[in-house]
Every structure is written in structure tokens, then in C-alpha cells.
Amino acid sequence: MYENTPWWKSGILYQVYPRSFQDANGDGIGDLPGIIERLPYLADLGADALWLSPIFPSPMEDFGYDISDYTGIDPLFGTLEDFDALVKAAHGQGLKVILDLVPNHTSDQHPWFIESRSSRENPKRDWYIWRDERGEGVPPNNWLSEFGGSSWEFDQATGQFYYHAFLRSQPDLNWRNPQVRKAIHDVMRFWLRRGVDGFRVDVMWHLIKDEQLRDNPANPDYVPGQQPYQQLLPIYSTDRPEVHDVVAELRRVVEEFNDRVLIGEIYLPPEKLVAYYGQNLAGAHLPFNFSLISAPWNAQGIARLINDYEAALPRGAWPNWVLGNHDRPRIASRIGDDQARVAAMLLLTLRGTPTLYYGDEIGMPQAEIAPDQVRDPWERNLPGLGLGRDGCRTPMRWDSTRHGGFSTGEPWLPLGPNLTLCNATAQADNPASMLSLYCALTALRRAMPELALGDYKPVEATGDLLAYVREYRGQRVLIILNVGCAPDSFDASRWPGRILLSTFMDREGELTDSTVALRGSEGVIVRLQGA
Ligand code: NOJ
After folding, report:
1. Partner of 6 at 20 to 30 A CA spacing, among 151, 218, 242, 256?
2. Complete domains list, the chain, with CATH
3. Could you tell me the distance, in angstroms and rounded to a whole number, from the CA of residue 63 to the centre of ligand 1?
């Protein structure tokens, strides 16, 4: 941590998927007491903050992103006392705690929705988005649900449709209603007072919809076989100009407390994404940048996306990078185990706050899920399109015992292959493991202001080599990454220095005054001379 720099700028975030982190009571589902047990692991790893995916009471149709009580803890995960104990223990070990705020929609079991659907006259009717049919049985417009089918559900009892961007059991709140805004602001205050250090806001770009609910246009680039949601361009259902007022209000609530962070989940191209920093940077501190998740894995492609993102950032805005999350296939399976080490070096040497996804630090693979084991509603609704998210949500592997030390009971999802090598205990004992590499990278980032805070300067993106410099007050480090599997070499005659770390972890101290030979899938960090 650096003086005069907010923790969320210099720090490293770590996403915990609570169902799958550590089960303390043997029911096969992770819980808060389990997370408390594992806090020392996160501190040793060099994380500064943990973000917990939703832990609130929920029917779990979308595994907690369908909330039925915003200010409680689901009994599966524990109690409010457990939560308070978690915050206390985390803070005691120097770790911040970030909660998932899901303000776009509730569960259909939330008392607000139960009231809202009870009659057209109910005072909470307008808390959700209700509309008449467009013709007999025809939904109010053509908007599609991300999880398949129309995003409108007809309610027989009151004869109107309600809008749901995701499952029909996840009705969208109406953010044009000031009472809704106030209710969610109060939810935020409830948790902020309990000591949480900030929020990751779910689907921030969905929060407010076109007032006239105009039809979305067809997507001319849609290819049959793609996710059906992509048939339309969601220009009226998402990313509306008014969303920025909503975000600025969320930020003001966060600002009522000291030193807290507002992070937004936003899947948009860089030029649109950066608008979520807000006018005068009064929006989200960190609109999540997911460009690496869908990056073409080649030097030019990666260099381009870094440059495009850096160029799009408003003055003073702080960047951030994400390699994986609970919605996308695991990095180790996307680009292979060897390149996943290069990706780790990239993530932890770029300018901007890095977010690690649990298990990626031990190279957890995407698990194959047998059809009868599928839990994810997205895969169940739209089977066979490769949308299923269970494979990236499998239990954390702590050791090589039965169920990987995750649970004494039968885990809610299978563990997946290669438990013997891919578990935290085995890797902690191996100085060249992925876990050891992650620890070395976080240690360097914590120790070197040029890595945590320095400027980013592109150097080269030719063939399979990507090189850049990070610089802070005259101190410079050069990062050279070989994103291919063949050996390559970098002309370092202009870059004399000494290797601090290789992804192979075997050439620390080597001088770089001529050519640096890189093995396939090797990355190195070089402290430059004169620095
Ligand atoms: C985004 C979350 O990351 C995802 O897991 C969830 O299914 C949708 N929001 C709907 O809440």
C-alpha cells in the first residue's frame, strides 16, 4: 500500500465464488466460515481485497444473483454474525472485503416483487417494469433475455407483462422510480456501516432502459448458432445515457463513507466502457475491463487492446484488468497451461488494478460437466451452445485428498481433472509452480511502485513477442512476453538490465545487455539499468 494512493489503485483484487471456495459444514457448498479459514492463504498470495459473489438469501436459481433479501445472509453460507466475523478477520489480516451488489433485478420471491405483482394498484407496482401487451399475447417489445427467449413474462393474475433481462424469476427493478433508488441506496449503507469496503455492481450497463421501450434493431452481424440474445443490438435495453446519473448516485452513497470502492460489471467496448468513470470521474472507480477475457491470444492483438484501452481512458481515470470470472471459461483452458503463466505475468505487470479469479492462481482447468450434472440455468435454457458456466465454478482444490480439501461432503459440482498437480498444497511446496509464480508476481508488484503505479509504455509487438515498460519516478522495468510456443529472442541492446523474474522461475539475476533468448511461452521482468 502506498501513502496518498487509494488501496484499490495499488492493490490486487481476488474474486471468491463462495459456493466453491471452502465448505466448513460438510454440506458440499462453500460458506463464510470456510472463507474465514482460508483468509491466511489469500494474505500469503498477496491479495489486498476479496470480492464475494452474492451471499444473500436467494432461491439460487441463478446461484445468488436472484436475491430475495438484500440485507441478510443465505443460511447456506452462514449468518450475519459469520459475516461480521469474516469482515473482522479479513481486516485483521489486512484484507478488504467487497460485496456483490445486484441492483438491476431481484428474485421473483423478493417481497418487493410479490407485492408488485399482487395487483396493478399496489404501491410497489411501479418498482418493476410492467407493460400491457402489444397485441393479443404479444410482448410490449422485441427485447430478448440474455438467458434465452423473450425478456417479457406475462402475469395472468394482473394481465400485464413484466421485464426480465435474465431469468423470468429475475424481474428487473425500475430505476426510474425514486423509491427504488432510495431502497437500494439504503441497502448499500446497511453493508457499508457493517464495514464492507465497497461493491462490485452487477450488470451496471443494464440498470436503466429506454423510457419509450423502443424495439432493439436486428444485429446485421449475427451468425446463426451464436447466442440468440445477439440477434438484436441491445441499444435501447442497455447502456442508456441516463445510466450515468444512476451510477453517480451510487458513487455518492459510497462517498458517504471513507475509502470505499465502486466497481462496475460492464461488457462494452472500450470507448463506451470508459464513460462509466462518469463526468469528472464521479462514476465508478473501476468499470471492470474484460478485454483480456476475449482477447485474441497473439502479440499484436494484445498490444492493440492495451493501447486502445489506455487511449480511451479519461484523464485521471485508473485502469483495471480481469483475466477470468465466474461467467467465462477459465484462462488455463482458454490458452493452455503454459500460456496461462504468461497471462499471469501480463495481468500483474499491466498498469491498472488486477482482479484474480479464485483457482486461476493454481491453474485450475475448465471442468467438463456431464449433461446430468449441469447446474447453470444458462446452459439448461440453451444447451449445447457452449454457454455453461459450471465448468469455471468448480470447487477450489486445496489438497489432493478426497474432494480436494474443499468439503467432507459431496461437492455441489465435480472437481474436474488433474487434482494431484493442480492443488494449492502441492503447488505451495513446488518453487516453480503456478502458485509460486503468482506469489512472486504479487510480491514484486507490492514491492515495486513502477509495477503498481508506473506509466505504461509500449515497446514492441512483433511476431510472438510483446514488450512494454513500466516507469515510475525514473525507475523502469521492462516486461517481455513470448505469447507463442516457439523460442524467440528480443534485442535488448538498448535495454541493459537484470532479470527479476521469469515465468520459468529459473533465471533471476541474469544480465540482459544483448539478446534475451526466450523459451516458448516464457515471460521475463527486467529491472532496467540506471533505474
Ligand atoms: C452477471 C453475473 O456475473 C452473472 O453470473 C449473472 O448470471 C447475471 N449477472 C444475472 O444476474
Report:
1. 242
2. 7-104+178-441 (3.20.20.80), 111-163 (3.90.400.10), 455-528 (2.60.40.1180)
3. 9
Instruction: Output the nine-digit C-alpha cell for 510.
Output: 541474469
368 is catalytic: no
> Angle at CA 62, nearest 5°, toward 390 and 129?
145
Say if residues 19 and 29 touch (Cβ distance below 8 Å).
Answer: yes
pTM reported for the whole predicted model: 0.98
Cell 436459481, residue located: 61
**Cα separation values, 207 from 70, 175, 273, 292, Å:** 17, 7, 14, 24
The tens digit of pLDDT for each residue in 224-251 reads: 989 999 999 999 999 999 999 999 999 9
Exposed/middle/buried for 79, CB within 10 Å: 0-12, 13-18, 19+?
A: middle
Q: Which residues' Cβ are closer than 6 Å to ligand 1?
A: 62, 65, 166, 202-203, 265, 326-327
Quick check: helix, strand or coil at residue 71?
A: coil
Is 256 a residue of the active site? yes
**Type and span of the H or E element at 500:** strand 497-502
Q: Where are the beta strands (DSSP E) in 9-64?
A: 13-16, 49-52
What's the CA-to-centroid distance between 359 and ligand 1, angstroms? 19
